[in-house]
Amino acid sequence: MKLVLASQGFTNDKIADEVSKLVGKKLEDINIAIINEAYVAISGTASKRWLIDELGNIAKYIGGNIDFVNFRAYDKEEIKNRLMYADLIYIVGGKQLILPKLFNATDTLELLKKIAEKKVIMGTSAGSVVLGSQIQSKDYWKERYGLNLDEIENEGLNLININIIPHYLREDHKKWDENFFERVLKDNPFPVYAIQDSQAVIYNSGDIYVVGGNARIFGNNKNALD
What we know:
- By secondary structure, the chain is an alpha/beta fold.
- About 30% of the residues lie in helices and about 20% in strands.
- It has eight helices and ten strands.
- It has helices at about 15-25, 50-60, 75-85, 100-105, 110-115, 125-130, 140-145, 180-185, and strands spanning about 1-5, 30-35, 65-70, 90, 120-125, 165, 190-195, 200-205, 205-210, 215-220.
- A seven-stranded mixed sheet has the order 3-2-4-5-1-8-9, with helices on both faces. It has a three-stranded mixed sheet with strand order 6-7-10, with helices on one face.
- The longest helix is centred in the N-terminal third of the chain and has 13 residues, at about 50-60.
- The chain is globular and about 45 Å long.
C-alpha cells in the first residue's frame, strides 16, 4: 500500500517528485482521479480560493488525464472503473467528517480499501485524515470541533494506524499550537504527525517518512520516525 498524507497537496517539487516515485511514472504521464466533495459543507461566506489554488497545482504538476469522480453522481461500478483507470487517486480536503459520511452513505468504504491495495492514494487536509485511523482523544474532538467522540457515527478508511494534523502552525491555525496538541493527544494510542503545508507523510509498503522536513509527532509511539 502506498499513501501520501499531505497538508495542502502539490505545494512543492519535493512532494511531486515523491509521488512520481511512488506511482512509478513521470509526472507528465500520471493519470489522476480527484475526489472533491469535502468542501461542500464549508460555509458559503468562506472563500474557496484555496481550492482553486490546490487544483491549479495539480494541473501544474500532473500531465496525464485529470478526472473528477463524483460519488453521489455515479454508481459503484462507474466509481470503480474511473478510479482504476487512474494511476493516482487524489482526495481533496474540506469540512472534517464529510468524507467518512460520504463513503459510508455510498457504501464505498470496502471498494476504496481494495483499490488502496493497487493504487497510490494521496489526500490533503481532511482528505488525508480520512485515510488514517480516527483520533481517539475526547478532548481533541471536544475542544477543537465541539464534538463528542461517542457521537461520531462514521469513521474513515483506517488504512494505517497513524494520522495527521494538517496546516500545523499556519497563521489561521496558530491557536492550536504545540501545547494544545501535547495536552489533548497525550493519550492517543497511535502517532499523530503535525505537518505544515509544505510537508507530507508517506506510507510506502510499511515504511513511514516525511517529505519536506521533520514533523512534530504527538500521541503514543512518538519516535516512529527514528
